[in-house]
Structures are given as structure tokens and as C-alpha cells.
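pasting for ref
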Amino acid sequence: MALIHSTAIIAKGAQLDTDVEVGPYSLIGAKVKVGRGSRIGSFCVIENDTTIGPGCKIFTGACIGTIPQDLKYNGAPSRVVLGEDNVVREYVTMNLGTAEGSTTAVGSHNLIMAYSHIAHDCSVGSHCIIANNGTLAGHVTIEDRVVVGGLVAIHQFVRIGTLAIIGGCSKVVTDIPPYSTCDGHPARFYGLNLVGLKRAGIPAEAIHELKAAYKIFFQSGLNKKHALEEIEKTLKITKEMGHLIAFISSSSRGICH
């Protein structure tokens, strides 16, 4: 049985699984689905077509499923979907997608700290940390195991590669490559995220190859096409290397310097 505070307002049609808790003065809309064991704190607003997976913890004042801050939005039906075991701290905002049928998606096991914003049509992977006031503009893609520092602003359509870490207060206007450490205004590449790679269990040989790949890409003076050709010709194509090559090859906004 769901545990709902007497002051909470749950619209008819909302689907709350077993053991869900809803705190004082929270509002749950008619199309909302909340998975088993999730906890919604006080003064939260969860509305429209929003699905929250099992085991999530939503803290005071979070607003999830609100309409996008996009002048193109015309009221078309869209969604917000969260996976399982996410921690969403105080006053986080997550908006619906803009176009009909679009989705703002967050994976599982993420920590999204206070006052962060996930805008329309964003995609956040799993096991990520977005520190306080992290700001994602529309259509941002964040892969798995990324750390976004506090007060970081990420431009629309930017992609952040897996196991990247971005220093606090950075301005991110181009794609951040996988496995990297980046920082600055605008954000620049500073090297491999060695701590993150080791914690993730990436083999030493793969780390060595990645280090060599980034030396070619950033220090050889070759353009993107020729640098990738040199990497493929001279280095071992591990799983991580394959992902790096695919990420850089498909970049439309360019890779940070």
C-alpha cells in the first residue's frame, strides 16, 4: 500500500506501485506512474506523462514532467522517463520533450544534486553524477558514468562521453570525448580520467591505448579525419577504443580542444 500524506494531492488515474511514499503538499498528475518503493518528498510537482522507476528518492521541491522551456512547444504529448534507484535532490527540474512523442530520459542509479536542470529531449545514462546547479540545455546527451561538476552549463545538442569528468563552473559548448578530464570556460581537454577508468575496471592495456590515441588526436597536428585514420592504423582497437572512434566520428558540434 502506498503511504500518502493527507495534504498531498494525487490526481485520479495516477499509478503508484506498492510501498510508494508521497510527502506533504506534493502534487502527482493523472498520467504519472511511480515504481515500487519510490519516495516522493514534500512540495514536489510530478505531472504529465512521467514514469519514475522503482526505488527512486525524489527530494523536496523537485519538479518533474513540467512543460519544456522551448518556444516551439505547442502542447504536443511527450514524456519524461526515469529508471530505477535514482536520487533526485532538492528543487531539481526535468522537462518534457518538445516534439510529439519525444522523451526526456534518465537512466538508473544516478545522483542528481540540488537545483540541477535537465531540459527537454535530454538523455542521461546510468551511474552518473550531476552536481549542484548542473544545467543541461535541450537535446544534451550524457553517456554512462559521467561526472558533471557543480555550476556547469552544457550547451544544447552537446554530447558527453562515457566516464568523462567535467570540472565545476565549466562552460561546455562542444562534445566532451569519452574517458576524459575537461575543465574551463570554455571546457578544454586536460587528459584521461585515470581515476574513473581504474575504478570502472578498465584494463591497463586499454588505458595505455587510449592515452596514445588522445596524443595522436590532440598533439599530432592532424585534422579529425586523418587523426582517426592514424589511430585505427597504429593502435589496438579495444572495446574502449572502438567507442572513442565512433564518438569522435559522429560528432556534429566538434570535440573540445
